[in-house]
Amino acid sequence: MSFLEVKNLEVSFNLHSKSLKALQNISFNLERGERLGIVGESGAGKSVAAFAILNLISRPGKITAGEVLLDGEDLSKLSSQEMRKIRGNKVSMIFQDPMMTLNPVFTIGAQMIECLKAHRKISKSNATKIAIQKLKQVQIPSPEMRMNQYPHELSGGMKQRIIIAIALLMDPALIIADEPTTALDVTIQAEIMELLLDLCESNNVALILITHDLGVVSQVTQKTIVMYAGRIIEQGPTNEIINDAQHPYTQGLINALPQQTLPGEKLNQIRGSMPSLQDIPSGCSFNPRCDFVLDLCTQKRPEFTQSGGCSVACHMVKAMKDAEKGHSAHE
Amino acid sequence: MSNSQQSVVTDKNNGVAESILQVRNLHKRFDISGGFLDSLQFKAGKISRKREYVHAINGVNLEVYKGEALCVVGESGCGKSTVARTIMGLIKPSEGVISFKGQRIDNLSNSQMLPFRRKMQMIFQNPYASLNPRKTITETLEEPVKFHNPRFSAAQVKDKVAEVMLSVGVDPNWGVRFPHEFSGGQRQRISIARALTVEPEFIVADEPISALDVSIQAQVLNLMMDTQQERNLTYLFITHDLAVVEHFGTRVAVMYLGTVCELAATKTLFSTPKHPYTQALMSAIPRLDVKNTAHIKLTGEVPTPINLPGGCVFHGRCRHANERCKIQIPPLIVQNDGSQVACHAIEENRL
Amino acid sequence: MRDDIITTTKIPSLWRRFKDSYLWHSLKKDKVAFASFSVFILFVSVAILAPVLAPFDPYDPSSIDIMDSELPPVWQEDSEAKFLLGTDAQGRDLLSTILYGMRTSLLIGICAVLLQCFLGVVVGLSAGYFGGRIDSFLMRIADIQLSFSTLMVAIVVLAVFQASFGAELYSKLALFMLILVIGFAEWPQYARTVRASVLAEKHKEYVDAARIMGFNNSRIMLGHILPNTLSPLLVISTVQIANAIISEASLSFLGLGMPVSQPSLGSLISSGFEYIFSGSWWITAIPGLVLVVLVMVMNLLGDWLRDVLNPKLYKD
Q1: Chains contacting C (3+ CB pairs below 8 angstroms)
Q2: Which of A86, A11, A8 is nearest to A44 (CA)?
Q3: Domain presence at residue B45
Q4: Is A278 within 8 Å of chain C by CB?
């Protein structure tokens, strides 16, 4: 059994008395210490997926099917009280905006100590010690001084480091990071990403990294999930996805990067844009934007096909695989 | 596409490239000391008035040549957007001269500026804020056409708007819709269309794609490159994304804390970055193919532009800084390969 | 070259758009808001149609018979069938008087709010857009105005007017004066609201885009910024009309409002007050009830509008 198993997770939102499925059929496994990237554009449902794993979906949204097994315990069935024990203890989350986590009216130290005391029976001096030690881990200079500072006195990069320190406070086994560096500058972004990678590696922490940036994913994760319109369309080892993407959408995403074209040449664009949840096309949801569209694509939703280490939801890939198989059977 | 880029470079070598915009010694300070009462201070038994400034731009010199795409890169707070807004006259500079085709424009009144408005336009970062939410697309696009061409008949206005909408890939029949009915990428197309309605020669694009998704970024960049060719446009392109710069720019200006620290042709900059800051910036791009563990770490944080460090603004984070860097501001010096670098270490051949 | 032109679909009509809109949808879903809206529409249409609907004309002295005075509503004893809600002390049919009174109250409320709105928008827009000294100056005036309570200003002005020009001229100009006084006393509410949203709007990029197009200030202020400040204006307008109606009623109750010959809801309540202890409770109670329902309905609508137009809650 894997450390984290997500099976057929489905999330719906009730809006305008209609029920919209924001997430469908999400399944994946994660081992201890493994790093997984979830990639997709805005509206793909990657943040919803993170919130659903932590059972943080709030009304009008709801987990309507599936389970999230963490060490065999189904998180999606837990009460909010039991969930609170898990969050911050076994699992912690890093948000894009540090101010989602930091309270502007308390000092960094007060927030870290409070967090520790909420989860453990611990004396204040011990809590302070642990907090300072964690701040050191995230390479914050003069951590004792930082303990008495307020969030607004720190720069963006520093705040994000402190968020990571807070996420590490309870020695979690899993960190979910939702676009942790998007708001930061390139040079700071690289540092933070490297820090996060080091910490996960040295503490054997599993990481789910949610991002739109394929470059970051390729630097940090071992496995990658690509999402489109609320579904997984391709998942597998990161290097296979980056170097040999099977799904036309993943290929399109990679090829659209400016690095993939010679300077001054036209970029490889994907036409159109992500459909909104209200009007997801029938069949494969990517079919209106796909260059390789078959008749089947507009009629039937593709099942996952195994291709190398990846599983891909695409009729075209399946057809090619079948043809190959037929070919080798002949020989 | 690539030949247009080539031609500019050769033009420049022959010395015939026409300079379309000149920025000389530009400074911009924002007064943040608040009202009169806020700025009063009681010090050593005397009441004095203390003024505090944000030094957003500190002596920027730029020249934009006809037909090129000059990219300005830098991290947040380096003043690149302020440069763009000052050039467009949205902000008055504190010091310095901006001239468009030889005519000084930074000290003009609104009405004197009017003829230049047709020639210079701007595209904004946030496609959700740059279109008036209460106006339909047609209203948004027709207004500038009518305003700048008062003699146009209704049919001419309509034709012009339809032509522009088609050229950015938006169906003119959608004009009756409001901005919120469009996706981010489509809105950015409409923003571009609005700039094109007055047939400008020069467009300032302030991070036009950074709010968009990857697949949409490619669409918008392609559109901008196509329109550049078709309409013979010149761009000043502000961005923080070096990958885009490498692809799109003819020349690149790297900014740090309100100063240009390196200015070079794109190819030169990417093959041989010289300024220590440029090198750090380049090494931080997450690449798909190679694991870049060797990125140059900068120590410390970007200082606030309120208390500007003396000397080179980068010295606090620079590995190669010496005493001179702390005292003397380095000027942009032309190198052998035509690039301009503001760094004492380069000048002294220490680097 | 443009392989990605968006294909045409049919364009919905304006009515269709409204019916599909979020506003209409949430109105239908919210029962309280829908009931309030229906009651409000009913009141307004009844007030507009008063000359057609009312069985008597209370402004016409020839239709009034003093012998009919203080008749109770029909469900009480000693009532007369032709006076549905009874009569007042002068023998006027209460139903007709209430219909006409509501007309007057709504007219004063709406006109006073239009005046407030006009002044407030002019001041708030210029203060917010130009900023600096103009802003400080205009907003200090607004602060001064706000520090006087509406009723106090109104009482002083109306009392002085009545004392210096006599009650007869006053009763002729009462409607006009009330609109003017209530309108002037409350404009800072609008000025502050408009200024706040102008400050938020003017830094948005579409305003910069308009400036770069070379549009002049008045075009940008009126054509671009003002339309985007309308939703908060709509919200406070519902509350302000209710407030204005209450102010007018209070002033009438104090004898500074509409004359008895052209009663508003307030003066009707006031005129019945002296008869309340002689058992004729309906002369005060029924108009009072109408006033309470009218004001409550408007406040509920205002609450609902505020929730709906709140951009944080807005989902399309």
Answers
A1: A, B
A2: A11
A3: no
A4: no
Domain assignment present for residue C66? The answer is no
Which chain B residues are within 8 Å of A181, Cβ to Cβ?
Answer: none
Residue from the list A15, A271, A272 with its beta carbon closest to the beta carbon of C315? A15
Q: Kindly state the helix (H) or strand (E) to which residue B120 belongs, with its residue range.
A: strand B120-123
pLDDT, tens digit, for every residue of A270-322? Answer: 888 888 888 888 889 999 989 888 888 898 899 898 888 889 999 988 888 88
Please report residues of C whose CB lies closer than 8 A to that of B144.
213
Total number of domains constituting chain B: 1
What is the distance of C-alpha B70 from the center of its chain? Answer: 8
Domain hosting B207: range is 2-39+50-347
CATH code of the domain covering residue C98: 1.10.3720.10
Domain of C187 in residue numbering reads as 29-57+71-309
Q: Which of A15, A16, A271 sits opposite C3 (nearest CB)?
A: A271
CATH number, residue B115 = 3.40.50.300
Residue C49 lies in a domain: yes
Parallel, antiparallel, or unpaired for β A223-228 and A35-39?
A: parallel
pLDDT(A114) > 50: yes
Instruction: Look at residues C51, C112, C75, C84 and name the one whose alpha carbon lies nearest to residue C237.
Output: C112
Chain C interface test: which of A13, A14, A16 (most C C-beta within 10 Å) = A16
Query: In this predicted model, what pLDDT tens digit does every residue of A6-36 receive, in sequence order?
Result: 999 999 988 766 788 889 989 999 999 999 9
Instruction: State whether C4 and A16 contact (CB < 8 Å).
Output: no
Considering only the beta carbons, identify the residue of B2, B75, B288 that sits closest to A259.
B288
In order of start, what are the domains of chain A with their CATH numbers?
4-90+170-330 (3.40.50.300), 103-169 (no CATH)
- Is the whole-model pTM more than 0.95? no
Given a cut of 50, the residues of chain B with pLDDT beneath it are 1-14
Query: Closest residue of C to B123, CA-based?
Result: C209
Chain B residue whose CA is closest to C215: B147
Instruction: Report chain C residues whose CB lies below 8 A from the CB of A17.
Output: 29
Q: Cis omega (within 30 of 0) on the bond before A60?
A: yes
Alpha-carbon separation of residue A115 from A127, A130, C116 (angstroms): 9, 11, 52
Q: Do C25 and A16 lie within an 8 Å CB cutoff?
A: yes
Query: Mean of the pLDDT values across residues A235-257?
Result: 90
- What pLDDT sits at residue A132? 92
Per the CB < 8 A criterion, the answer to whether B219 and B138 are in contact is no
Is C13 inside a domain boundary? no
Beta bridge partners of A21: A12
Question: Has residue B76 been placed in a domain?
Answer: yes
Residue A279: the pLDDT is 82
Query: Is C24 within a domain?
Result: no
Query: How many other CB atoms are found less than 10 A from the CB of residue B42?
Result: 8
What is the phi-psi region of residue A196: left when phi exceeds 0, alpha when psi lies from -120 to 50, beta otherwise?
alpha
Q: Residues A48, A22: contact at Cβ < 8 Å?
A: yes
B341 is a domain residue: yes
Chains that touch B (3 or more CB pairs under 8 A): A, C
pLDDT in tens, chain C (316 residues): 344 444 444 555 666 666 666 777 778 888 888 899 999 999 889 888 888 887 777 777 777 777 777 777 777 777 777 777 777 777 778 888 888 888 888 899 999 999 999 999 999 999 999 988 899 999 999 999 888 888 888 888 888 888 888 878 887 888 888 899 888 888 898 999 999 999 999 889 999 999 999 898 999 999 999 988 888 888 888 889 888 888 888 888 887 878 877 888 888 888 777 777 777 778 788 888 888 999 999 899 888 888 877 654 444 3
Q: How far does the CA of residue A216 sit from the closest CA of chain B (Å)?
A: 6
Chains with ≥3 CB–CB distances under 8 Å to A: B, C
Tracing tokens 């061409």 back to the chain, one arrives at B149
Number of domains in chain C: 1
Is the Cα torsion angle C175, C177, C179, C181 positive or negative in sign? Answer: negative
CB contact under 8 A, B114 and C214: yes
C14 Cα to chain A: minimum distance (Å): 20
Interface A-C: count of C-beta contacts within 8 A: 7
